[in-house]
Amino acid sequence: MKEALLYEKLSHKMVHCHLCPHNCVIPDGKTGFCGVRKNAEGILYALTYGKVVSIAIDPIEKKPLNHFYPGASAFSIGTFGCNMRCLHCCNWEISHHSATESGEGLKELSPEAAVRMAQDRQCEVLAWTYNEPSIWFEYVLDTAKLARKAGVLTVMVTSGMINTPALKTLLNYIDAYRLDIKGFTEDFYQRLTGTPVLSYVLENARTAYQAGVHLEIITNIIPNWNDSDEQLNGLSRWIVENLDADIPWHVTRYHPEYKMSEPSTPTTTLERAKAIGHKNGLRHVYIGNVPGHPGQNTVCPGCDKVLIDRLGFGIGENHIVMGSCRFCGYRIGHYRGPDIPIKTHTTPFPEYIL
Predict the structure, then answer these.
(1) Distance between terminal CA atoms of the chain?
(2) What is the mean pLDDT of the chain?
């Protein structure tokens, strides 16, 4: 087992984990809230280091990231555990699963092997996704360092449930931070996730943006939970006032999952959220989980022409060249991609490896 970082040894073989806002004090023989960090004889171990439950090659748009190397392939890996308990979790079979010392249900994938597999499959990006990557801290850190040396881009798909000092360490080696801001009140976070951590998530959004890491924000819009004008206005204004009007905001359709049975989000609600975001100054608001909706497309704020047209996770055209609109020259803020667009993709995704 791999000894964890970011913890403090206490008396009576207790340990204090400093990785996330739970700040678990863990007795000997027990795991923290995440289920993957275990105290054994006064030493904290990362049970899932180098162990994965899922590997796939996804389009980068599935993360979703629309302004980060559009058309790229993402070598995507995930493991067990999470430090939230969201009622609508779509990956609850793995994220709400605790790891065991035997590694039952997991496969070995060293940091070196992860980077090599991404390269062998010609993936421009390596992504930690499917469960909360912050609880995989040691593995993400070691793999990201190797990926940086190898020229492979890295993405964290995260809910932002991490203490800021730990996040700052990771951001030294992470290229993109796709952050889930679930709503805009602490009460909402308490009801949905069991933990009122909105302030931590917002602070981590600031931290990632100030570090110069590419940032995109997603909010899964749940009917009668976070779809009020108050919540949508509050979050979109916060992004403009505290981050950047060019930060992409993805408002996505919720479907009933796990312990939540509310009906799926009406498309009209997502269109209202998009309009609210634009009204408050955001230049790029995307509608997600509605295949074929024009709200998936990237539109130039300068000339209103479609720059990237999307159908599902496929890309038909990309008219952003050297970061600017091919038609009018408008500079697309908070956009990261090669000087020549990556070739468009229409092949089926994802390719499941494990």
Answers:
(1) 22
(2) 95
- Residue 299 has a pLDDT of 98
Q: Residue 95 pLDDT > 80, yes or no?
A: yes
Looking at CATH, the fold of the domain delimited by 51-290+343-352 is given as TIM Barrel (3.20.20)
* Rounded distance between C-alpha atoms, residue 240 and residue 276, angstroms: 12
Q: What is the pLDDT of residues 10-40, one digit of tens each?
A: 999 999 999 999 999 999 999 999 999 999 9
- Does the model's pTM come out above 0.90? yes
CA distance 239 to 216: 10
- 134 secondary structure, DSSP code: G
- How is the chain split into domains, by residue range? 2-46, 51-290+343-352
Mean pLDDT across 55-59: 94
The residue ranges of DSSP E strands in 170-321, in sequence order, are: 176-180, 214-221, 249-253, 285-288, 298-299, 306-311, 314-318, 320-321
Strands (E), 181-322: 214-221, 249-253, 285-288, 298-299, 306-311, 314-318, 320-321
DSSP SS3 for 272: helix
Pairwise CA distance, residues 206 & 162, whole Å: 13
Write out the H or E segment, with its range, that includes residue 73: strand 73-78
